Amino acid sequence: MATRSSSLSPLTGEGIVIDIGTGDGTFVYQCARGNPHKFYIGIDPNPRPLEKLSEKIHRKPAKGGLPNVLFVQSAIEDLPSELDGVADEVHVHFPWGGLLRVVATGDQTALLNLRRICAPDGVLEIVIGIDQERDRTEIERLGLEPLTPDFLDHELAARYQAAGFEIIESGVLPQSEWPRLKTSWAKRLRGNEARTLVYIVAQATEATSHL
User: What are the residues facing 169 on neighbouring strands?
Assistant: First the structure.
């Protein structure tokens, strides 16, 4: 798979951004600071890593508080109905476990949940970081196929299309662009040449099949 520059970056302007599997919330917090006219929602089933930033966002602005951030405890299978159709952008960065399986295999039920929260023409952006040797056990456990160009362009694209997403761009993100992700994991993995970061950018369309 070729390594190339991408259009990968949060959209400018106004709108609502949802980060699925937000972890410690760093991506949401840093982006919200730089884009005060956008509203950011970080979602994760595990609230513990979010404790620090969940408290911080409610402080006065001079002490790091942000009025344009909300954190929600939820799994991808149980996204609140209040989010239906609101997201101009949905981000999934460095997913692991069940969330990794969803985006790397094109699980229809979960992808339909992501499509449900997207506004018309909403953008879904995914970054997957895998070390084929170090992560071999997890790869085998989840039944993941290698994210080759052929797999992305044919099998995975068809599964995303069925759930209402058209993949408009995919490839390998060069290490020089990792800092743009503004996540804790991007910082931790910097310099790890064995780990490949595959990105997928898709746009919400009409689903071609329903479960």
Answer: 201
- Residue 33 sits at φ, ψ, to 5 deg, of -65, -35
Domain boundaries, the chain: 15-204
Q: Say how far apart CA 118 and CA 203 lie, in whole Å.
A: 9
Give the pairing type, strands 38-44 and 87-93: unpaired
d(CA 111, CA 102): 7
Judge contact between 186 and 174, C-beta under 8 A. Answer: no
Would you call 184 exposed, middle or buried from its count of C-beta atoms within 10 A (0-12, 13-18, 19+)? middle
The whole-angstrom separation of Cα 87 and Cα 180 is 21
Q: pLDDT (tens digit, 9 = 90+) per residue, 135-174?
A: 899 999 999 999 999 999 999 999 999 999 999 999 988 8
Structure tokens at 60: 């006065």
Best CATH choice for the domain 15-204 from the list 3.40.50.150, 3.30.70.890, 3.40.50.720, 3.30.870.10: 3.40.50.150
Q: What is the reported pTM?
A: 0.88
What letter represents residue 76's amino acid?
A: I
Residue 108: φ, ψ to 5°: -65, -45
